[in-house]
Amino acid sequence: MKHIITTAVAATSLFLLLLQSVTATTTLPSDVSALKAIKSAINPTTIPSYSCLATWNFTSDPCSNPHITHFLCGLTCTNNRVTQLTFDRVGYSGTLSPLVSQLTQLVTIDLSDNKLSGPIPSSLFSLPNLQTLNLRSNSFSGAIPPTISNLKNIETLDMSHNSLSGSLPDTSTSLTLTRLDLSFNKLTGPIPKLAPNLIELAIKSNSISGFLPKTSFTELTQLEVIELSNNSLTGTIPGWVFLQTSIQQINLANNKFTGLEILKPAGSNNNNVIAVDAGYNKISGHLTANFTAFPSLSSLSLSYNKLQGPIPVEYSKKTSLKRLFLDGNYLNGVPPEGFFSGKFSGSLGDNCLKSCPASSELCLKSQKPTSICRQAYGGKVCVKPKA
Ligand SMILES: *[C@@H]1O[C@H](CO)[C@@H](O)[C@H](O)[C@H]1NC(C)=O
Ligand SMILES: *[C@@H]1O[C@H](CO)[C@@H](O)[C@H](O)[C@H]1NC(C)=O
Ligand SMILES: *[C@@H]1O[C@H](CO)[C@@H](O)[C@H](O)[C@H]1NC(C)=O
User: Fold this and answer.
1) Helix, strand, coil share of the chain (percent; to 5)
2) Which of 39, 57, 70, 72 maximizes ligand 1 atoms within 8 Å of its Cβ, making it the mutation to test the pocket?
3) What are phi and psi of 323, to 5 degrees?
4) Which has the closest alpha carbon to 377: 355, 354, 357?
5) Which residues contact 87 (CB under 8 A, 6 or more apart)?
6) Mean pLDDT score of the chain
7) So what's the pLDDT on residue 169?
8) Which ligand places an atom closest to the C-alpha of 314?
9) What is the CA 232 to chain-centroid distance, rounded?
10) Least crowded by CB within 10 Å, which of 56, 287, 312, 338?
11) Rounded to the nearest 5°, which phi and psi values hold at 307?
12) Pick from 145, 143, 133: which is nearest to 109 by CA?
């Protein structure tokens, strides 16, 4: 009798245990249907047998453990909800199903380095808990949906290396966004207002145009990196860009800037600029010594612009400066002695300098022919610089 009771109790607890584990992990049906839609939108011929998506077999439950043969990877669950969607980088092609928005507990989406194409579904931007969206290196096209500002918890947004077109999204109401990378797309138009807590902004290699608008940047007190190279930005590079106290790296190379304003930072510990690249623009005028007032400046490139006049001697005395690229301008005069102590790397070549010592790495590239320099200076080879 006692034996029977013990067995019955044991059986009941086993049953309860099973019931508990089943109820705890059975995936919410709307998550299962979303996963089915996501898999069906992928071209089956691009799902290799060794890939994560090949293990997505809906005869078993996606979130239920143990995962021995099915749902081995590509998703992570917390209890009965999918919280991460992370495709392996095997070259899946197809589209991203709009039903992804049913996975309302998603925190991370990483579909990078595949061949997904078609539009980015606007429903994606209604996911309330999404913190990381990485669609980098795919073939997504069309406009970036304007609903992007609905992502209330987004921190990292990487849609670089796709074929997205149209204008840049307004992220100004997103208080959580710290990293935005839209580089290597086909985006056009001006820079809109930006998310106020951005730390890194990268929109290189697009076709964005217009001036650098101060209103887009004024609230960005945490911004450390501006990467806007290889676009069609115009006008004068404004002095405020370099004076935001958090800013460290600024790359504006390969645009259509025609001028450069460099204001001296107030107070020598009030500025963290380390690297500036404004090469391959159309900047004319004299090379200002003002850059040497930046306490941490270590790397400066103004290569291939239209700068004239002498190189201010302050540059050769600037101890923080390690890399200096001034090649491809019309700088003239005798370069300061201090450059040739071996402390600097970079180039002073392809200018109109007199006696750039061939023994120095900085002078490996030869100077411009006299005729070109004479033309640049309106007939006179040597012009007395303005004070
Ligand atoms: C799913 O798994 C079952 C066994 O659990 C198997 O019979 C079936 O062929 C699988 N389906 C696919 C599409 O791989
Ligand atoms: C500049 O951007 C264009 C597309 O806008 C791209 O084709 C080209 O490779 C980029 N060049 C560099 C040096 O990144
Ligand atoms: C250099 O800095 C001073 C003071 O900040 C400023 O008045 C001047 O215009 C600057 N020069 C250039 C070329 O930006």
Assistant:
1) 25, 25, 55
2) 57
3) -125, 125
4) 354
5) 52, 53, 74, 110, 111, 112, 114
6) 91
7) 93
8) 3
9) 18
10) 338
11) -70, 145
12) 133
